[in-house]
Amino acid sequence: MIAFLSKGGVLVIPILLCSVLALAIFAERLIQFTRLRSRGAGLTEKVVALINKGNAQEAYEKAVKSRSPMGQVLAQAMGARHQDREILESVISQATNTEVRKLSSYTQALATIGNIAPLLGLLGTVIGMIKAFMVIQQMGGKVNAAVLAGGIWEAMLTTALGLAVALPTMVAHSYVISRIEKYEAKLQEGSVAFLRAVTNKD
User: Fold this and answer.
1) How far apart, in whole angstroms, are the C-alpha atoms of residue 128 and residue 47?
2) What does DSSP assign to residue 130?
3) CB 8 within 8 A of CB 158
4) How far is residue 82's CA from residue 202's CA, in Å, rounded to a whole number?
């Protein structure tokens, strides 16, 4: 396999590095999402229940100790619960945006890898084709079909490899984005539940 890939030229190396980096980012995001799901399970309901019972301090401590995006948003909201409704909503919105940005870490890198991998492959193909035609010129045009075909398939190898890296990377990027959107929706739902609890308490 190494001998086969080496025929694609020097640009095979950065394409392979892109694949390793994309896999590492995707795995890291999956692990992070799994941890956050277990940490924040049922947190909003517990915090709201404590608020309704008048245990605001315990609710705050539970939100902080959860170490989850929902917990961070609720903790920020608890700190501003005695402010005007407009200020409270602004605090919640800012906290939600901050947590969404954290969840979005490295997603842009996935998109970048998905975009540049095929371009690297295309560049490798162009370079390979240039070399092939230089050989043809040096041989005075007396090149048989086998020599020409061999040069072409070696040049096309990087394009195939670049596409092979880009396609799953873009799928992974789309999946990560969908998970982030689901988390954002949960954060918004939890914020609404908190606001209702605070309003009813007041």
Assistant:
1) 62
2) H
3) yes
4) 9
Q: How far apart are CA 96 and CA 83, in angstroms?
A: 18
Tokens standing for 5? 């890939």
Q: Is-contact 57 76, C-beta < 8 A?
A: no
User: What is the distance between the alpha carbons of residues 93 and 86, in angstroms, rounded to a whole number?
Assistant: 11
119-146 pLDDT per residue, tens: 998 888 888 888 777 777 777 656 666 6
Helices (H) and strands (E) in the chain, counts: 8, 0
CB neighbourhood size of 1 (10 A): 5
Residues whose CB falls within 8 Å of the CB of residue 124, separated by 6 or more in sequence, listed in order: 8, 9, 10, 11, 12, 15, 155, 157, 158, 159, 162
Distance, in Å, from the CA atom of 156 to the CA atom of 159, rounded to the nearest integer, reads 5
User: What global pTM score does this model have?
Assistant: 0.80
Q: What is the DSSP letter of 7?
A: T
Distance of CA 51 to the CA centre of its chain: 35
